[in-house]
Amino acid sequence: MKHDRPSTDAQDPVTLANKALDGDLSFDDALVGGGAEHIRSVRRVERLLSIESHARTAPDLTSVVLSDVGARRGWLDTRSRALVWGGRGLIAATLLAALAVTLSVRRAAPEFGPNAREAAALASVVDAGERAAASATAPLATVVETIETGTPFLATLTGTIEAPAQGSCEMTFARGRQHNQLTPSHGGRVIVVNATLDPASQRTVDAVCGDAGSPRWLRAGRLGHNAHEHD
Amino acid sequence: MRYPIDVTRETERKLIERAGRGDKNAAAALIQRHQGSLYSYLLRLSGRPEMAEDIAQDAFVRVLANIDRFDTKYRFSTWLFTIAKRLYVNANQKLKPHYDTDIVGAARGRGTTPDAPANLDERRDRSRDAVQSALEMLSLTQREVFLLFHQQGWPIALIAEHFEMPEGTVKSHLHRSREKMRTHLRSAEEHQWALEEAGL
Fold first, then answer.
1. The model's pTM
2. Residue from the list A18, A46, A64 with its beta carbon closest to the beta carbon of B57
């Protein structure tokens, strides 16, 4: 504690005593300055208050307070505390394990993660790319689709279905009993999934053509003027 | 008499944390550590043993019921005494304080009754009653500051923090309260001497 040494002559004894009691001045200086009586008076009160504070006369509030607090929030014995801590530890460990498993699964198989839709879309793009690459080399002329028609064909039609914006779909209609077959005539990338013959003209057909694996390619077309009948 | 309020802060922090986790023994240790000082402070503040006991009990209950919210960077005693002071002010609003020096003395089994033991004990009781009577002369803030400094041994900086007032203001309260106490105690002694001189 830092004690300055003021000129004790300049201050009255009570002020000096107060400074000493506050810890701002040494008691020697205060006593020299005549503050002894004031200091003694305060010290006597302090002694009395101290005796009182140390006396074992204060009521023991422990049990009543603990009981009251226990009714409000409850106390835990050693075993219960151990259980609580054990439970908390178990929960924390479980959460960590679940997190680790989730991260591992997501890394190994992203399609099972929360972004599975995006992952699947990406996968379908890849698959489509792979299919397109494969179809470019496959002999598409061998692809034959069976079509159902409301009116039986009397003749085999060979012609071109004009598929708007997608070029032409060349094909041959072959007569059958219950159904007619539509076959791409020149190995075009055409698969007809539905077709009806106009019974009046026998020349036109409403058909849908496109790549079977890619519905986006489906287009409605009409058998053009260059189609002709065969027996 | 100054109490070593800093030396056990680490121990106390651990007790507070344990009590916050529901450890009854830790809570009991906190009560036993502080109940004497809190009760004697409240007794001198209120002058009424029953009020001091009720407020001390209520303060402990409130503090311990919310112990998990306590920030251990602060002092437990400061928190406890702050709550106790609020409870005292609330109780005071309902019941005008009644300083009964006989009650204060009787609470310790040494009342100023004719049957009380004579000589030293009696003289000490008279002094104690005179102190209580002198404390009555102080304003509530002066009394609190005086008791926290001279009874509880709180440093001026801590009292200033507790009251949220500058240290200079705390010192002013202390100086005024000491002066009032001294004046009152001197007149009480003179009165006592006069009585003794008169053989009463």
1. 0.54
2. A64
